[in-house]
């Protein structure tokens, strides 16, 4: 990372931060997982949400309109992201109010923060999301400190040198050097037994081996000091979550202004500039404004409500498209016929049921959706998946054609032999009990007829039981396999 001496901070008076951790769970156990979450104090969210506390997720900072959630998305999308019951397909969201204070130490600095609420969303195809909503207790912090906290908190395992050394201290004296342990062991222990780890990838930490790295996605709504003029370098740092260098100075991960401008052209949404800027990159989604929270009630409600679902849906698209590429790379063409069929089924159902280019009826929602599509590179990933699907279909057709050709070959041989012999295929000795001595005296005619009859009957029995066994084995394998499709 290249230090830029003239990079200056602006003051962040307040901010709302969310960290999203994707994970895999066993979708066959979704009912048990839901029961465990509800027993642990989580509340299942629906559009009606009777007795719910959805507006307390950010501790009453603004009112999230459930009617607006209902009208924001296209009807066929709404049914998927707001299922009324756990039994229906879609994104099943469970939320819990936490309201505890903790302290994170990193790079010689202390960051007291309040953990407001926690979401566990059990999505389709065994993909889940853990959303942590926090708020820094210290106000009027420099931008570098806020970004540094975000960078350390999103690193669920401190493996890189610049991420090591961070510790979370709890009010009861406990401490955690791993963000993952802090979230899963202390705050979301109910979901831990249901998190699925792929044991075939030894040495990999986490439950999504097809995901890029071991960092959470971060979303934020930052309130800058009134009158602040955002520079291109500052907006770039916000998009990249560039906080402090090891010696405690502001840093930026680029020094070429042409590169910075190209980056902002791709990921910056400035419809409401200069009062509000929106950045959506491959690992952060940030709104930064110079207005006060009282003046930004509606944009803040959108950030917490409609825009959160808009982001979550596109984030799910990215994970699923990466998953298909990963599963395709594990395919063993000469052995995994059933795996191939399941992969075709996975791609087809995902494409037809969930993958939509437009998800919102609002112009702002569509613009934000396009921004997410560009940030997550969804169009290129989807084109790769379409190519994968074509290859899978071609392979399946070739395998089916080879089996059919082999079957036709044997049937043709028996048909030709039977046609040549005609009615004479029946041997007089077969009408009565035939001893081995009589069979040993057969000539070429009788031996050909006998072998044709025996092999024909045997092949018919074999084909019948093979077909029946394949059906039984396929259903049994679907119940027992760990593909989590």
Number of strands: 12
**Rg, alpha carbons:** 31 Å
The proportion of strand residues reads 15-25%
SS element count, helices? 14
Global structural class:
alpha+beta
Report how far the terminal alpha carbons are from each other: 40 Å
Low-confidence stretches are 1-5, 200-205
Largest sheet, described in full?
Answer: 12 strands, mixed
Give the % helix: 40-55%
Which shape, going by the Cα principal axes?
elongated
Order of SSEs: EHEHHEEEEHEEHEHHEEEHHHHHHH
- Overall pLDDT: 82
Structure description:
This protein is of the alpha+beta class. The protein has a domain at 11-333. The protein is 44% helix and 17% strand. The chain contains 14 helices and 12 strands. Helix 9 (306-329) packs parallel to helix 11 (363-375) and helix 10 packs across helix 12. The longest helix has 44 residues, at 378-421. It starts with 10 loop residues before the first strand and ends in a 5-residue tail after the last helix. Keywords: Membrane, Transmembrane, Transmembrane helix. The chain crosses the membrane at residues 300-319, 406-427, 447-469.
Please give the structural blueprint:
Blueprint lengths: L10 E14 L5 H10 L3 E2 L21 H7 L2 H7 L10 E15 L2 E14 L4 E10 L4 E2 H11 L13 E3 L5 E2 L2 H9 L29 E8 L7 H9 L16 H11 E2 L6 E5 L3 E6 L7 H8 L1 H24 L7 H17 L9 H13 L2 H44 L14 H5 L3 H37 L5
Parallel strand pairs: 9-12
Antiparallel strand pairs: 1-5, 1-6, 1-9, 2-3, 3-4, 3-7, 4-5, 7-8, 10-11, 11-12
Keywords: Membrane, Transmembrane, Transmembrane helix
């Amino acid at each position: 990372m290249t230090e830029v001496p003239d990079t200056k901070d602006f003051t962040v008076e307040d901010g709302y931060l969310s960290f999203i951790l994707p994970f895999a769970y066993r979708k066959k156990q979704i009912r048990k997982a839901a029961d465990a979450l509800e027993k642990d104090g989580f509340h299942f969210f629906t559009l009606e949400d009777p007795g719910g506390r959805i507006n307390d997720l950010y501790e009453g900072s603004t009112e999230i309109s459930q009617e607006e959630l209902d009208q924001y998305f296209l009807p066929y999308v709404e049914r998927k992201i707001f299922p009324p019951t756990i039994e229906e397909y879609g994104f099943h969201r469970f939320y819990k109010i936490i309201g505890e204070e903790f302290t994170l130490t990193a790079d010689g600095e202390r960051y007291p923060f309040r953990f407001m609420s926690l979401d566990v969303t059990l999505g389709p195809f065994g993909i889940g999301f853990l959303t942590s909503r926090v708020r820094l207790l210290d106000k009027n912090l420099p931008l570098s400190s806020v970004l540094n906290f975000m960078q350390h908190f999103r690193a669920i395992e401190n493996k890189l040198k610049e991420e090591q050394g961070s510790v979370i201290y709890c009010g009861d004296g406990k401490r955690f050097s791993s963000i993952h342990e802090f979230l899963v062991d202390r705050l979301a222990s109910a979901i831990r037994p249901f998190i699925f780890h792929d044991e075939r990838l030894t040495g990999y930490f986490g439950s999504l081996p097809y995901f890029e790295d071991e960092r959470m996605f971060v979303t934020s709504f930052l309130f800058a000091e009134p009158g602040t003029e955002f520079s291109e370098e500052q907006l770039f740092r916000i998009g990249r979550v560039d906080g402090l260098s090891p010696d405690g100075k502001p840093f930026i991960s680029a020094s070429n202004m042409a590169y910075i401008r190209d980056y902002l052209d791709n990921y910056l949404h400035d419809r409401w500039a200069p009062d509000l800027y929106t950045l959506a990159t491959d690992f952060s989604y940030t709104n930064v404004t110079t207005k006060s929270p009282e003046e930004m009630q509606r944009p803040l409600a959108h950030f917490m409500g409609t825009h959160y679902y808009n982001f979550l849906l596109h984030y799910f698209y990215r994970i699923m498209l990466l998953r298909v590429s990963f599963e395709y790379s594990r395919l063993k063409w000469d052995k995994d016929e059933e795996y191939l069929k399941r992969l075709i089924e996975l791609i087809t159902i995902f494409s037809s049921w969930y993958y939509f280019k437009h998800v919102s009826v609002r112009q702002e929602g569509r613009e934000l959706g396009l921004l997410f599509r560009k940030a997550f590179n969804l169009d290129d990933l989807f084109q790769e998946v379409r190519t994968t699907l074509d290859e899978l279909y071609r392979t399946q057709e070739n395998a089916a054609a080879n089996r059919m050709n082999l079957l036709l070959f044997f049937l043709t041989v028996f048909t030709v032999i039977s046609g040549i012999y005609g009615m004479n295929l029946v041997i007089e000795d077969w009408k009565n009990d035939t001893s081995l001595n009589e069979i040993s005296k057969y000539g070429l005619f009788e031996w050909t007829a006998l072998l044709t009859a025996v092999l024909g009957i045997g092949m018919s029995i074999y084909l019948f039981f093979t077909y029946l066994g394949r059906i039984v084995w396929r259903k049994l394998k679907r119940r027992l396999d760990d593909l989590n499709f």
